[in-house]
Fold this protein.
Amino acid sequence: MTSPLRRGVPWVSASAGLAVLAIGIAPFIGQTPLEFGRVFSWALPFADNVDAQIFFLARLPRSLAAAVVGGTLAAAGVVFQGLLRNPLATPYTLGISAGASFGAMAAITFGSLLPFGGVTGASLAGALLAVVVVYALASARHSGLSTTVLLLAGVTMNSFFSALILFVQYLSDFTETFRALRWLMGDLDVAGYRPLVGALPLIMVALVGFVWLARPLNLLSLGADAAATRGVDVRRAQRVAFFSGSLATGAAVSVGGPIGFVGIIVPHLVRLIVGADHRLVLPASFFVGAAFLVVCDVVSRIVMAPLELPVGIITALIGGPFFLWMLIRKTGGHA
Amino acid sequence: MLRALDITVAFGAKCVLDRVSLRVAPGTLVGILGPNGSGKTTLLRVLAGTLAPHTGQVTLDGQSLSRLDRRAVARRVAVVPQDTHLAFDYTVMEVALMGRYPHLGPFEVEGPADLAAAADALKATGTLNLSERAYQTLSGGEKQRVVIAAALSQLDRRSAPEDRSSPLLVLDEPTAALDLRYQVEVAALIGRLHSASVTAGTPLTVVLSTHDLHFASAVCHTVILLSEGRVVAQGSPADVLTVDALSTVYGISPELAAPLLPRVHA
C-alpha cells in the first residue's frame, strides 16, 4: 500500500518546476525584447551589455520579488486557513495587512518627520503592531487561542486601521496621496534586490515554522480538543501558526504591498489537485503562488504597455470573481 | 487502572463536576449516564486529559495525567467525540492515519507499520472499502465508524509492542446522532472491538457516555449515573438502572420510567 502522502510528491515537484520555469522566462518578456544569447554573453563587459543589464538589474529582481512574495502569501494563506479552520481565510483576515498599510501610509506622509525613513520598515512595524494587538485580544480570556475571538479581533483591527489610513490620507498632500494609493494597490516595481534581501531573513524564519506546522495543522482541522487528544500541543501549534504566518505576511507585504487574493486562490486550487494534507498543500502552494504572481506581474507589465499596471489590480481582477465562484460552490452544493 | 479522585470542575459560578471519584478496571466497559447538563461530556474530557480539573486528579496506572507528556497520554487514551467535523477534504485513509500522530516524531513520515495500523483499524470498523473516499461525503454512521478507526489506529501498539498496559477508548455519546440501524451497528461494533481486543491479549478499556439505557445495559459491565455533577450510583447495569434511580435523576414519574428500562430476562 502506498501512503497518500507519497502520491502527492510528484505534484509538489511539478509545482517547483513550474515556479523555476516562470522565474526564468518572465524576465525575457517585456517592452524591450531581450536576446538570450546576448544576456548570457561573456564576450561583452557587463557595463556595455544593455540586454544583460535589463535582465539582471531590472527584470530578474522583479521576477524574484514576485516569486518570493507570491509564494509567501500563498503559504501564509494555507497557515491561516488551517489555524482558523476556514478555507476562506486569507493572510489579511487578521488585520496584518491593514497594520502594514497604516505603517506605510504614515511613512509616506510623515516620512520626513520620522527618525527612521523607509516605507518597508514602517510597514513591518505596522504589521507587528496589528499582530501584537490581535494576539493580546485573542489570548486574554482563554487558555488557548480562541479562533472566534481571533476572527473578531482581526475584523475589528482591519476596520480600525482602515480608518487610521483614511485619516492619514486626509492630512497628506496630493503627491503623497498618489504614492500611498499606488502602494495600497500592491506593486512589485522594486528597485534592485535590496527590498527582497531585507525581507528574506524574516521569510526564511517563517518558512521554518511552516515546515514544523504542516502535520499539526492537519490535526488542528479536527478541532482543538480532538487534536489535543491525539497528542498535539494545541497551544504551541496555534502560537507558531499565528506568529510565523503573521511574520511571513508582514514581510511579504513590506516588499510588494497588500497584493490580494494570492493567499486564497492558490491554496484552493492546490487542494483540488493534491488533496488536504498540509505537508503537500504548504510546499505546493508556495511554488504555485510564486509562479502565479510572476505570471500576473508579466501580465501587468505588458497588458497596457508602455503603462505598467500595479500587479494587485491583476490579482484582484482574477481573484474577485474566483472568490465568488468558490463561495457559491461552497454554499451551493457541498456534498 | 484509570482512577479519578475528587474531581471538581466549575465554569464560572456553575459547578459542573462536584467531587467525582471513580475507578475503571482495565479491560472493562463503563457507561456514564445522566440527564443533559449532568456533566457527562465534562467528565469524559477530564478523563481524557483535555480538561484540567480545578481540584482532584486523574491517574492512569498510578501516574497523574497532568504530569504525563501529551503524546504519551495519546498513545494510551483515544477519544471519539460526539461528532467530528473536518475543515478540509481529507480522505478516510488520511483521517485514520491522523491517529498515528503520537507515534511519530516531529518531522517523521508515516511508515509501512503506520499504514498497516490504519488499514487494520479501518478493516475492524468495516470502512476499509471507503479509504479513498472524502470523509465529508460519508453518511453519519460511516463517519462515526471512521473516527472510531482513527482512535483504534491511535491505540495500535505495533510500533511499541513492549507496552502491555490496557489502552483506553473514550466515546462521547457514540450513537446519539445516528438512526436506528447505525445505533445498532455502532453498539455491536463496540462490543465486537472489545471482545477482539480481549482475544488478542491487550484488552481494551472503554468509557462511554450515552442516553441509551438498552445500549448501556447490553454492552457495559459497569454504569455510572451522574446527576448535577455528582455520582448518584455506580455498579452493574441491573443494580444501577432501577425505576427509583431513573425517576429521581431524570425527574419523571415511576410509571413512565418503568417501560424505559431494558427487560431483564432471568
Q: What stands out?
A: Chain A touches chain B at residues 1, 3-5, 81-82, 85-87, 211-212, 215, 218-219, 221-223, 225-226, 228-233, 271, 275-277, 279, 334-335 (CB under 8 Å). DSSP finds 13 helices and no strands in chain A. The first helix of chain A runs from residue 4 to 25.
